[in-house]
Amino acid sequence: MANDYFICKLVVHETSEENLAAVAGMFSSKAKGVEWSLDGDASNATVLVASEAHAITLAVEGLLGVVFTVATLTDEAVDLGELESPRFDYEPPGKCNGRIASVCISMVDSLWLTILDALSLILTRSQGEAIILEILKGYQAFTQVIPVILS
Questions:
Q1: What angle do CA 126, 131, 136 make, to 5 degrees?
Q2: Is pLDDT of 150 > 60?
Q3: CA-to-CA distance for 7 and 141, rounded, in angstroms?
Q4: For residues 55 and 23, what is the distance between their CA atoms, to the nearest angstrom?
Q5: pLDDT by residue (tens digit) across 48-106?
Q6: How many angstroms from the chain centroid is the CA of residue 21?
Q7: Which residues are CB-neighbours of 134 under 8 A, at least 6 positions away?
Q8: What residue spans define the domains of the chain?
């Protein structure tokens, strides 16, 4: 199996405190089950802030979607016996390589550095408990996948 590597460059533009607060507000609203919407009478500046905050929110949710997809696929590969979980006390018979396991291994091999860099960047810039909790859940899910993939 050939390894495919992706080169990704993270470009970070300075985001205002107002935008970061808006992103935190969007995640907080989502955590409370409140749907966020923009007032029709909003000024152009408010619409600009909301648009950038919405784009950042979508990017964060997309990144977390990748992380949770890898975690779910890894769990499925363990359930199907394609990967061995290091949680078991007995000696595993060896690593099994099925289709799902191969996808998980490829995704982690090609994206782990980019994912961890992006999660770190978001965490350092985040405001608000809701977004920080989501990022930490992403870290937790990804770090639980690594021992399974590398076992």
A1: 95
A2: yes
A3: 23
A4: 9
A5: 888 888 888 899 999 999 999 999 999 998 888 888 876 554 444 455 568 888 888 88
A6: 20
A7: 27, 60, 64
A8: 17-150
